Amino acid sequence: MTEPSRLIDRADVRELVREKYGAAALSVLNGEGAACCGGDSGGRAKDSCCGGDVITGGLYNDTEAASIPEAALLASLGCGNPTALAQLNVGEIVLDLGSGGGIDVLLSARRVGPAGFAYGLDMTEEMLTLAERNKAEAGATNVAFLKGHIERIPLPDSAVDVIISNCVINLSADKDAVLREAFRVLKPGGRFAVSDVVVDGELPAAVRADMEAYVGCVAGALERGDYLRRLEAVGFENAGIEPTRRYLFADLEATTCCSPEVAALPAEDKAALDGRVMGAFIRAVKPKAASCCGPKCCSGHEFPHGE
User: What is the per-residue burial (b if ≥16 Cβ within 10 Å, else e) of 40-57?
Assistant: First the structure.
């Protein structure tokens, strides 16, 4: 079994995430049904081992769902609805980290209006292909999808007003780099407003060690206090974490269905996990006086698309 404390340092985390999310995008592109949140890469709900809609279902209301292409909704692998909680304003520039099929980018673009702009950043070719298709179907003109890693955002310093993300930062093997980059590209006074999986307390070693659970957004989740400390260490202020959905262990077990170690956990360990893993909304603000997060954060990136 992988040593749990070293899981986030594994070189194959990024490639495993890319492989699984690429397969999920292909599932939607090929008309095979909704993508899956965990061990199954995609397919129709009856074939899924990710717990149906327990984690990813019911996050968007009927009005939101009707305003975007169906494929964008089918490809959503999030644990929340950051666009509904981020209080986006007309004319603002938004960046979605790990934008997938583009659902939150397209919703954000509608919220900020023609005077605003919404960027989506993703590393997976298949997801970017799906996102571009959804952008065209939606007729969105104030949207651009960028290829890259959330640990090195291809935008200049102080470029955006709001950063959103939907259950993606927990998948990164270098979360501190993600937070530093988020701070760097935000304008002074800009807002960090993301949905993510967060843990109250510690997870059993078997869950932390399971790579399938990592792709299912469980093993890579930060502990609540640790998340807040990391945000503050980067320079963010007014950091807070608001639970939006707490999971029973049965939900997590469905997400990590391929792990015999997780299945073999004692009943009392499983019961102790109820409610400890949660979908949460994380807020923080870049101070208005801040222009950079330190001498190492100013990367000299230039805007793509002439923005």
Answer: bbbbeeeebbbbbebbbe
SS3 assignment, position 302 = coil
Question: Buried (b) or exposed (e) across 18-32, using 16+ Cβ within 10 A?
Answer: bebbbbbbbbbbeee
CA distances in angstroms from 92 to 5, 74, 143, 157, listed in the order given: 39, 27, 12, 16
pTM over 0.70: yes
Cβ 286 vs Cβ 188: under 8 Å: yes
3-state helix/strand/coil string of 86-139: CCCCCCCEEEEECCCCCHHHHHHHHHHCCCCEEEEEECCHHHHHHHHHHHHHHC
What is d(CA 83, CA 48) in angstroms, rounded to the nearest whole number?
Answer: 27
Q: Tell which residue, 170, 201, 205, has the closest CA to residue 37.
A: 170
Residue with tokens 């998948």: 171
CA 114 from centroid of its chain's CA atoms: 25
pLDDT in tens, 270-286: 888 888 888 899 999 99
Q: What is the spatial distance between Cα 152 and Cα 299, in angstroms, rounded to a whole number? A: 9
